[in-house]
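Backbone shape codes
____________________
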Amino acid sequence: MNCLLRCFRVLGTFAPQALRCAALVVALPWATFAAAAQATPRFELGAGVTLLKHGGTTNAGPTFIAVYNVTRYLSLEGSAAWFPSEAGFSYLDPFKLQVVETSAVQGLFGAKAGYRTNRFGVFGKVRPGLISSPSTERVTGFLPTPVGFGSRPVLQVGRLTEKALDLGGVVEYYPARHWAIRADLGSTLIFDEGVTFLRPNSVTGTSDASTVGAGTSHHFQFSFGSQFRF
């Protein structure tokens, strides 16, 4: 009996320390996870260059991006790119018989999700948006001549804004806590509205209209730049 009482006294002496150790073992993983989450800056602002394969050539222009890191592995982001010359929206002027180059802007907003360490991050991204040209071909073709013989070319130019969807991957390198180097690679879907084409109708003496070039097309897109994290 005396031995049993001594054992209870020893356990009573060490019980508080044992409980503290057990609590520390349970809390340590959560504290480590919280510290890792806090290590990721909440906001990022960056700039770089974007290449878009559209219109049979590679169009290049500056791009700007803003990122909100919801968690260490999920981010919301928006980007804007400007292409001084965008071959996908360039058109043939039938009166001057030459190709007219035009510009375009692209705006995308969506999410990226993946995995990151203190030095590297790998993500997948889905970003819907728009691509818009201020002046491109909207109506082309031929109209009957006033005298009723032959036809004459017609061209109407205006703004065109089409839906886009950017799908792909992102690789990031973090040389310091507040800086990131980023590369995007993927395919951008453009939902082409097409162009109205006019064709003379000899019976009615007017022109019949139809839409050409409408559909969905895939275009390679690559971006590279740096971001400030805070």
Summary: The longest helix spans residues 2-38. The radius of gyration is 30 Å.
